[in-house]
Amino acid sequence: MRSVAFCTRHGPVAAGVCDTSDMQHESGHDPVRIERALQGDPVEATLTTSRALLGLVARSLSETLDLVTLPQFRVLVILAGNGPMRIGELAKRVRSVPSTFTRSMDRMEQQGWVVREASPTSRREVLVHLTPKGAQLVVEVTDRRRSEISEVLRRLTPEDAEIVARAFAVFAAAAAEPPPEDLVLLGL
Fold first, then answer.
1. Domains of the chain by range and CATH?
2. Which of 45, 70, 75, 142 could make an S-S bridge to 37, C-beta 3.0–4.6 Å?
């Protein structure tokens, strides 16, 4: 399997060579780190890639954070993935104090992202449901993220895109999928 490197300023790189001399620290690029990654340091290559992926996540969320806070978006993601939940369980999932969480739910309900209803099995339990508006917001962020990733992959040759897909699959298998509680901290 041949090694693939990608220099964010200059496009795909042949044989792992990338001219980093004109990259500036102010732009978020660290030429020394990038050079180590390009020379086969797996830790640096993975760290560099993780920063690139986090940048994609941040860009996909940027418009959304004008509408909801990151903790509120985390709630929407959890509800989108799990369906209606008891308010106490939802607060626990986002690691929030129930009284603070209830005030946040008040704001989210006023904005039309969620609706609270008494549980059909216990009048003492309150279930939080995602509204169509809340579900649409999660879909829009996911679509923006998918589009950003697709754009990056289009810059690669089909062979390199296949190598990246295999490498990510191998890495994901070795890392094991993190529990939802870890991902929720990032609004994923």
1. 5-63+141-184 (no CATH), 66-136 (1.10.10.10)
2. 45
